[in-house]
């Protein structure tokens, strides 16, 4: 369901699913965060995508290659090329 909303750039719906999960006592997982990052990119709210990646790390959810690929793609699609390069270099330094 989140993927469908995400592909359409329906941020509110994706976020709503995450909120429902939290209300049921379920923490967001890597897959749901990756979906939301991709949706942020489609919707053009890349600042939110960057914040989510930082929030993931703070909450013990380790971003993976998909996370960073979604983030870098979102940045590139929204003309944030320098930030995309920064994240690409950060990934390389971490061996991802």
Q: Judging from the principal axes of the Cα atoms, what is the shape?
A: globular
What structural class do the secondary elements suggest?
mainly alpha
Number of domains: 1
Helix content: over 70%
The major beta sheet can be summarized as:
none
Mean pLDDT: 85
Provide a count of the helices. 6
Determine the strand fraction and express it as a percent band.
under 5%
Unreliable stretches covering 5 or more consecutive residues: none
Order of helices and strands: HHHHHH
Q: Kindly report how far apart the N and C termini lie.
A: 28 Å
Radius of gyration: 13 Å
The tally of strands reads 0
Structural descriptors:
globular, 96 residues, 0% strand
Task: Please tell me about this protein's structure.
The chain has 96 residues and is an all-alpha fold. It has one domain. It is 75% helix and 0% strand. It has six helices and no strands. It starts with a helix and ends with a helix. The model has no long low-confidence stretch (mean pLDDT 85).
